[in-house]
UniProtKB/TrEMBL annotation:
GO terms for biological process: NAD+ biosynthetic process. Pathway: Cofactor biosynthesis; NAD(+) biosynthesis; NAD(+) from deamido-NAD(+) (L-Gln route): step 1/1. This is Glutamine-dependent NAD(+) synthetase. ATP binds at G301, L302, S303, G304, G305, I306, D307, S308, T408. Keywords: ATP-binding, Ligase, NAD, Nucleotide-binding. Its EC number is 6.3.5.1. Belongs to the NAD synthetase family. Residues 17-257 form the CN hydrolase domain. It comes from Marinobacter lipolyticus SM19. Catalyzes the ATP-dependent amidation of deamido-NAD to form NAD. Uses L-glutamine as a nitrogen source. Pfam families: CN_hydrolase, NAD_synthase.
Length: 554
């Protein structure tokens, strides 16, 4: 069933329309604060841009994803109060906002249109997604109706996020006479996502001969990053307007509306490199996680290795050097090179830097364990003790000074369990959790193009945990060039062992890596969350049982 209202007699003549894309960062659960942000944005859009229509992201009143907050009994009351506040705010533009709305006993992911103090339209999302990081069917019913309505004399169709990726909603709105389609989004970032969005929007606008305004959320929410990148495609499938990624703002677009509406083209931003794009995502993820959760500062262990070097740079770029503390915790196996490089990084980035040897604590622990360890030979137990002592030091600084501990493990290490529970895994947020080791090297080189903060030999030396004499990561693992390819096929693309071998990889390497991934699920469940940058990160994306009898093979 379609809901379509006929335009006024003036709707057939050329009409200018100013649509402002509100690419903003909302805080999940802060309905009152989000409502105030909508009001302030509407006032600014009117005063500075003469906005006719102001379009916000999906579920902006609650923030996205609200998860089980949607099950709270008071949610409906709070959202209703927010909508009443917006109705009474005397907003000049028509606003299109995202909110959960209950009707007929069912909850819908909705777009709400408010004009002149009245709710003039509601649209219920037709395709709540239930894959990867999404589980909207846990909360939302499926909408059934199409909404095309006149706003400032222009027939406007409205859809929400996943409706764009499915067949039906855009087509139905175009068939119902939409001159322009507004699409509200909370689309999470991954490395290839913006290119996929552009390809989809090009096809949908061209096939349906209608301009589409795509407005996306920006900001970090736990492990998810919303990158903005709001866009406008015209009816021929041409990209006419693109807002920058990872930046908040109000982005106006002028339309000349007959049928369909034609956007006035604007200069497009330069295409960022993959490294720049990922680095910006990490910076935004750290900034929002730290600030939204009320931490004053962060602290991390600085080892002289590449992972902690990149983590330190991201933290400083996210928060400023005055809010970052780096701690070197050397032991007898720590090389002079590591000590020198860690200090050089701290000085280059201007952070507080401390050196606390773990040698006395290690000796004390080993003295206490002398009797139960009698007759045994040193093994990974003693190596892991070093990592755990460092974790205790960092967590103590965290408790005393209210600093969030940033862990520094990368995706390659997290995948195969090359990490120590309650040691280098101790902390609150893992910046590189979804960044493969080979990409960490590329990020280090990219960051040095902005300013030289990571010594060259940190990038070129063989990676080592330095928990034993002359230790190198590749003594325990395949080379990272090979390891990361196998992990990509197994973790992100769900290839079986046989299928990976068929791609040309050594069966012994493949089966060894897969076994390490499978048996270390228990570690990942206890690891801090971290920024998601790939199509399938550890966390919301990949939910495997710890206890299982699945066998490697087909």
């Amino acid at each position: 069933m379609s809901v379509s209202q006929q335009p006024s007699s003036a709707g057939t003549s050329t009409r200018k329309l100013c649509v402002v894309m509100a690419q903003l960062d909302f805080l999940v659960g802060d309905i009152q604060g989000n409502t105030q942000a909508v009001i302030e944005a509407a006032q600014k859009a009117h005063n500075e841009h003469g906005a006719d229509i102001l379009v916000f992201p999906e579920l902006c009143l609650t923030g996205y994803p609200p998860e089980d907050l949607l099950l709270r009994p008071s949610l409906e009351l709070r959202v209703s109060e927010a909508l009443e506040t917006l109705r009474g705010a005397n907003l000049k533009p028509a606003i299109v906002i995202g909110a959960p709305v209950r009707q007929g006993g069912l909850l819908y992911n909705s777009a709400v249109v408010i004009e002149g103090g009245e709710i003039s339209g509601r649209y219920f999302k037709k395709f709540p997604p239930n894959y990867q990081v999404f589980d909207e069917k846990r909360y939302f019913a499926e909408g059934r109706e199409t909404l095309v309505m006149p706003i400032h004399g222009v027939q406007v169709g409205i859809t929400v996020c996943e409706d764009l990726w499915s067949d039906g909603p855009v087509e139905d709105a175009a068939a119902a006479g939409a001159q322009l389609i507004l699409n509200l989004n909370a689309s999470p970032y991954d490395i290839d996502k913006q290119a996929s969005r552009k390809a989809l929007l090009e096809r949908k606008s061209r096939e349906n001969r209608v301009s589409i305004v795509y407005v996306n959320l920006v900001g970090g929410q736990d492990e998810l990053i919303f990158d903005g990148g709001s866009m406008v495609f015209d009816h021929s499938g041409r990209l006419d307007v693109e807002a920058p990624q990872f930046v908040e703002g109000l982005f106006p677009v002028e339309f000349l509306c007959e049928h369909p509406c034609q956007p006035v083209s604007q200069p497009l931003p330069d295409e960022p490199s993959l490294e720049a794009n990922v680095y910006n995502a990490l910076v935004l993820g750290v900034r929002d996680y730290v600030n939204k959760n009320g931490f004053k500062s962060v602290v991390l262990g600085l080892s002289g290795g590449i992972d902690s070097a990149v983590t330190l740079a991201v933290a400083v770029d996210a928060l400023g050097p005055e809010r970052v503390r780096a701690v070197m915790m050397p032991f007898r196996y720590t090389s002079s090179m590591s000590l020198e490089d860690a200090e050089a990084e701290a000085v280059a980035l201007g952070v507080q830097y401390d050196v606390f040897s773990i040698e006395p604590m290690y000796d004390a622990f080993m003295a206490s364990l002398e009797k139960p360890f009698e007759g045994t030979t040193p093994d990974t137990t003693e190596e892991n003790l070093q990592a755990r002592l460092r974790g205790v030091l960092l967590m103590s600084l965290s408790n005393k000074f209210g600093s969030l501990v940033l862990t520094t493990g990368n995706k390659s290490e997290m995948a195969v369990g090359y990490s120590t529970l309650y040691g280098d895994m101790a902390g609150g947020f893992d910046v590189l959790k979804d960044v493969p080791k080979t990409l960490v090297f590329r990020l280090a080189r990219y960051r040095n193009t902005l300013s030289s903060v990571i010594p060259e030999r940190v990038i070129t030396r063989p990676p080592s945990a330095e928990l034993a004499p002359d230790q190198k990561d590749e003594d325990s693992l395949p080379g990272y060039d090979v390891l990361d390819q196998i992990l990509n096929l197994y973790v992100e693309r769900d290839f079986s062992a046989d299928a990976i071998v068929a791609e040309g990889f050594d069966r012994t390497d493949v089966e060894r890596v897969i076994r390490l991934v499978d048996i270390n699920e228990y570690k990942r469940r206890q690891a801090p969350i971290g920024v998601r940058i790939t199509e399938r990160g550890f966390g919301k994306d990949r939910r495997y049982p710890i206890t299982n009898g699945w066998r490697i093979g087909k």
